[in-house]
Amino acid sequence: MPYETYKLMHVVGLLLLFLGMGGQLLGAGSERGQAPKATAVLHAVGLLAMLVGGFGMMARLGVQWPWPGWLITKLGVWLTIGALPVGVRRQLIPHHLAWLVAAVLGGFAAWLAISKPF
Question: SS3 breakdown of the chain: % helix, strand, coil, rounded to 5?
Answer without folding.
Answer: 80, 0, 20
